[in-house]
Design brief:
By secondary structure, the chain is an alpha/beta fold. Helices cover 40% and strands 18% of the residues. The protein contains twelve helices and twelve strands. The strands form three sheets. Strands 1-2-4-3-5 form a five-stranded mixed sheet, with helices on both faces. A five-stranded mixed sheet has the order 9-8-7-6-10, with helices on one face. It is globular, with a radius of gyration of 20 Å. The protein binds nicotinamide-adenine-dinucleotide (NAD). The site of nicotinamide-adenine-dinucleotide has 22 residues, from helix 4, helix 6 and strand 7.
Amino acid sequence: MDDMFRFSDAFGPARIIHIQRPKIGLKAIVVVDNTACGAAVGGVRMAPDVSVEECFRLARAMTWKNAAAGLPHGGGKSVIFGDPRMPADKKEQVIRAFAEAIGDIHDYIPGPDMGTDELCMGWIKDETGRAVGLPSAIGGIPLDEIGATGFGLASCIDVAREFIGLELKGARIVVQGFGAVGKHAARFLAEKGAVLVGASDTGGTLADPSGLDVAALIALKEQGRALHDYPRGQKLDSDKILDIPCDIWIPAARPDVVRGDNVARLKTRLMPQGANIPCTLEAEAALHALGVLVVPDFIANAGGVICASIEYRGGTRRAAFDYIDERIRANTRLVIEESKKNKELPRAAALALAERRVREAMETRRWR
Ligand code: NAD
């Protein structure tokens, strides 16, 4: 009994649901964390090895992200156990069976995550009537194609830079992970005059202190090629991205890439977190002590979920961009000001902000 409730605290989780359909080999977990702000929005991850604990932590992160962004949504997450590269017909069957199984979990709205995409969300919508991150043919806003999260990162940076006296024109940026988030962040920042001096993908790092051509690199990636295929610039191992001196270092790849053992290699002034949990807490504290301004993930990278929420409510791309810009600017300013005032890490200030919003929403609910 105690063990079953090992994740419970004052906020949730409201429910942890185990799903099994032996006939087609479906095994899945849904965590509905806190729904005080509204139905939980959170991704459906397809992976062979995610623990219940990890699923719960990801759901909780969505509770904070959605609340901080002022969205009418709580946090949730689900995991379907399996190899996302399974044959397409099998994948459709598994996803549809999952959708049928969550049909009556009305306070959970699925979205895309690692191993699932907009087509999968289309199947879930077809079965249950609810999903976000849909194909544009059925009213979706293609958030990765339009660069919703990268756009939000640029808004975040434009506010954060004021606090360290940095002009965007001529600012040197480095992007770890030149994918959906990273390449669009580079594009929007280059439009404001910033200079991309380093970028990396799984194949390696490309560096040029005099500036890389962002549009050319995006075109290269869109052909399915690697950054190292670019004819100019210095080619280094992917880990060397940590050593490139810059003003703004943007993690947009994997979790825990900056840790206690490598944080001293960073030579930057600002780290807006595009990836989720790119730094260990130890590394984040070390950066803060060194005077590097870190804007935490669930404030800086909320553009994608804001876009998904606008889509769910029938809004347009324009409305999504306006909301992302307004909300991320306001939150970035608030979090940095609070952290300075209370002499605490920006993450502590951001968590306090999100918790406050969830507690206020809980006050309006009968069962809390
Ligand atoms: P993506 O798969 O489109 O891009 C990831 C990029 O990182 C790829 O270019 C890949 O080559 C690169 N990469 C992976 N491992 C690397 C390594 N060790 N070194 C250097 N590069 C590496 O993924 P994405 O959608 O851009 O997401 C990136 C991160 O941002 C993830 O942590 C994701 O959870 C987070 N995030 C994404 C969104 C979104 O809207 N897509 C929103 C919020 C947070």
